[in-house]
Design goal:
- The chain is of the alpha+beta class and 80 residues long.
- It contains 2 helices and 3 strands, in the order H-E-E-E-H.
- The chain has a 3-stranded antiparallel β-sheet, with no helix packed on it.
- It starts with a helix and ends with a helix.
Length: 80
Amino acid sequence: MSEWARAVLSDPDTVVLDSETSGLDWDPRIVDLGVQKVSGDVLVDTLLNPGEPIPIDASGNRRVPGFPQQFGRQFAGDCG
């Protein structure tokens, strides 16, 4: 790990952002967003409505198997 990274990660106020998207195409949507301080405090942990169905082939990139299809279809139906 570089000295810069060590210095950044040693600051307890540093936050890490993690996002999951609906795919790898040119117009993916964020479907899962997390923000956590390196001290362990979770600031954001939420699912987001992508506004459209999530492609079946996107599921291989998700940490929760089956999440994209199951929730993507539901979210798209909620968008009207």
